[in-house]
Amino acid sequence: MLTAPTRSLLYYLQQVPDSRGRKGRRHDFVAMLSTVICAVLCNHGNYEAMVQWIHLQEVEFWHCLGYLRTPPKATTFRRLLSAISPEALQTALEQWITEGLGLSLSAEELQPISIDGKTLRGTKSRHTRAWQVLTLLDQKTGCVLSQAPVGENTNEARAAQEFLQGLVLEGKLVVGDAAYCQKDFCQTVLDGGGDYLVLVKDNQ
Fold first, then answer.
1. How far apart are CA 59 and CA 48, in angstroms?
2. pLDDT of residue 20
3. Helices and strands, number each (H, E), in the chain
4. What is the pLDDT of residue 110?
5. Are 85 and 20 in contact (CB under 8 A)?
6. C-beta separation of 105 from 94 below 8 A
7. Contact of 136 with 168, CB cutoff 8 Å
8. pLDDT tens readout for residues 40-58
9. Which residues contact 167 (CB under 8 A, 6 or more apart)?
10. Which pLDDT score, from 0 to 100, does residue 1 have?
């Protein structure tokens, strides 16, 4: 039986550095981050859906999150998430899950795991390509275990090799689509003590 959380999500989000300029802090940083997380947990994953979700909540709920005025629009959320450190946010969420909620992220619960790359909607600009993010998913729990960006000068498979080198793969089955049907990627998994299952196409 789970005990009540000793500390809330808001407490752990305070550990994420606020990278906004002083003149651009009209809305509370933790309130906006918690809005994003709560909206995603409610299956509202894009910026417009996040805004619709938070504006449908009661004013009292806004105040609980830390808002002192009406929550912002989609552009403000987009700028916020583009500026923060994904590693710092990931660390805060992991601490919230393990310490605040008392849930386990032990190795026994983390296999098989799927790796996939996704292009972030709304991140493409006139002079740069859209942002790509690698995601590692625990198939048993459906939880995202880790994420990493795909640099402009590399591709999904090469970025995945560096991504996996920093993870514990022993006893895990890494599942990927045809993009990962590369000898170097498969060898990286084996070198880390894991096994792999990737889709094979005729050209591989």
1. 19
2. 80
3. 8, 5
4. 46
5. no
6. yes
7. no
8. 888 788 899 999 999 999 9
9. 136, 146, 192
10. 44
